[in-house]
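Here is my example:
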Amino acid sequence: MLESDVANPHAGIWVQFYPGKLPNEARSAETGKPEYDLIDFIRKVAAGDPNNIIERPCRKSDQYEFPQQWAAYKNNQTYRPENGTPIEDWPRIDMATAAKLKALEFHTVEQVAGASDAQIQQIGMGAYELRTKAIAFIKQAKDSAFVQKQADELAARNQELEDLRETNRRLAARLEALETIAEEKRGPGRPRKEQ
């Protein structure tokens, strides 16, 4: 189990809300024709297992359990995960492979990397190599993010050091100007002691 799975118990599950209808038996009996109630449905699919689909009317608890997907549905938008790289943005695969992965309900590179052997076998030939590439892609992204963070911190320190040097130059110039003014005000009189 990945560390991210502990923080996110829904890792590997793709959730989608959609509008649907349920037959209303009572109204149908009254009117003599088929009547339906329009309601929201939820669809949950485990990545790599498109045969294991849960589709049912949406409950209030689903809206709280999957708030980002619910918000996207309510705003008539397609949900894109905030965490993870969408399959279509993974530069290591072609469009046909991306479409195949999405059909198998793999929507992020992280889902491919964290897939079990049973889930990954659904992909077919080259599945294990694909999972290895996904793991390498995530590791490389983390490593490059770490290097970028270090470079940003180093640049910030260098800028701070340069600011301090500039402040030091200005203070030295001010001190020199003040010493010159003090010399001029002193005028003739007893000379200063030489050190």
Notes: The chain has one domain: 3-145. The CA atoms of residues 32 and 125 lie 54 Å apart. Strands lie at 13-23, 36-46, 49-57. The two ends are 75 Å apart (CA to CA).
